[in-house]
Specification:
The protein is α+β, with helices and mostly antiparallel strands. The chain has nine helices and 18 strands. The radius of gyration is 23 Å and the shape is globular. The structure holds D-[(amino)carbonyl]phenylalanine (ING).
């Protein structure tokens, strides 16, 4: 085929898929020719390179993980599909296939073993699809326990992890490493600092395709309330159970991208995205547990789905980044919670969306340089932003000072 003026050929040679742009091998499923080889003999030698081609850096196309059940021709077909969909096969394109592992409810009686089995099922499906990374929800190991409040936070110590990995989650780490897929996992963490004090965090840990922990992010914006509220049909006492992060938002180099994390309520605050946008983030991973009924203002109930999309689509667009937002939803212990997991492009467009209220994998191919089409033009922050007049943003908490 001719893509963007360049002859692109896909050959399945001796069981190996070889994609040639002009006369340069740019993609190999696994085996013989090496990415970047010049094809100088055979029928390709005469193919005049209509455009300079460079060895592709596409990751999953050159993945040599033997465990990944991929057929050669399916890979080649996929690469052409991706090329066609993005209008051109620009061999320098960094591609990342990412999944969202939405979960249905986790009931109070569900064991971590049962939950980890569900996570492994989602992870396996994502690996079968050729994904390199799957994003799991907030508090993905337990029911959303801040819906209760007994007055004693230690009554819920069993809902927190004290280390990661641990015996309950090791099978997830092992299977991820075996399949060569990374993941981000939301959970509650009790941490004892050197001076012996206990800290309780709402966290998300990013694990790479080798099973190593890249980073653990602590939730910054803790919503809800601290004291028991007798007027509520159910509590949202996150401020009773979790401290806010003292570290803020980070961005890490992983999976060939600049990756940041946020948790649930963080996604509603524009500062969240800008703090990562100013660190050059290209992909933000987010898990959420969002009850439909918002006790302080029930008029928002019918808008939960709209607000969920609104904040992540605008955050993505205004900072030129992909966003993956993944729910744990459905009816958990009688409380209806939002699903509607989405994958959003730097344009603000939705690339994938869940359609069920249960465990479901959504996925998309992220062409990471799409970010630059926004951060290098309309939202060129180094050129257009005016921090010298944004003085209130970091000196005031609210209108009262
Ligand atoms: N949950 C909710 C969220 O920010 C909430 C809190 C619920 C806010 C309903 C507004 C409306 O999505 C968490 N866990 O932050």
């Amino acid at each position: 085929v001719v893509v963007d003026g360049t002859v692109v050929m896909v050959l399945v040679v001796a069981g190996t898929a070889v994609v040639v742009v002009g006369t340069t091998v740019v993609l190999v499923a696994a085996g013989a020719p090496v990415v970047g080889d010049e094809v100088t003999s055979g029928s390709l030698a005469g193919a005049a390179p209509l455009a300079p081609a460079h060895p592709a850096t596409s990751r999953h196309a050159t993945a040599t993980n033997p465990n990944r059940p991929r057929t050669r021709t399916s890979l080649a077909a996929e690469m052409l599909h991706v090329a066609a969909r993005h209008g051109r096969l620009s061999p320098m394109e960094r591609m990342l296939r990412v999944a969202g592992g939405q979960m249905g409810p986790i009931q109070r009686a569900d064991t971590r073993g049962q939950v980890v089995d569900r996570l492994i099922t989602l992870l396996s499906e994502a690996a079968d699809l050729g994904c390199e990374l799957i994003v799991f929800p907030e508090l993905a190991l337990t029911t959303f326990f801040p819906r209760w409040h007994t007055g004693k936070v230690t009554d819920f110590d069993h809902c927190y992890e004290t280390e990661m990995p641990n015996p309950a989650t090791q099978p997830l780490f092992d299977e991820a490493r075996r399949r060569g897929i990374g993941f981000s996992l939301g959970y509650a963490l009790i941490e004892e600092t050197d001076d012996g004090t206990l800290h309780r965090w709402n966290v998300q840990t990013l694990v790479d395709t080798e099973g190593s922990i890249v980073a653990t992010f602590k939730k910054v914006h803790i919503p809800g309330h601290d004291e028991f509220d007798p007027l509520r049909p159910f509590q949202h006492a996150e401020r009773h159970f979790f401290e806010p992060s003292p570290e803020g938002f980070g961005v890490w180099d992983a999976f060939g991208a600049r990756i940041g994390m946020m948790i649930c309520n963080d996604r509603r605050w524009p500062e969240t995205y800008r703090e990562m946008g100013l660190q050059g983030v290209e992909l933000i991973l987010c898990g959420y547990n969002t009850p439909i009924h918002y006790v302080p203002d029930p008029s928002q109930d019918r808008l939960q789905g709209f607000h969920n999309k609104l904040v992540m689509q605008s955050g993505a667009y205004q900072n030129g980044t992909f966003v993956v937002g993944v729910a744990k939803g459905g009816v958990e212990e009688g409380v209806a919670s939002l699903c509607e997991s989405i994958i959003v492009a730097p344009s603000g467009e939705i690339l994938a969306e869940a359609t069920t209220e249960g465990d479901e994998v959504i996925w998309a191919d992220l062409r990471l340089d799409w970010c630059k089409q926004y951060t290098g033009t309309l939202f060129d922050m180094d050129y257009y932003r005016r921090p010298e007049v944004y003085t209130r943003l970091t000196t005031m908490r609210g209108p009262s000072g």
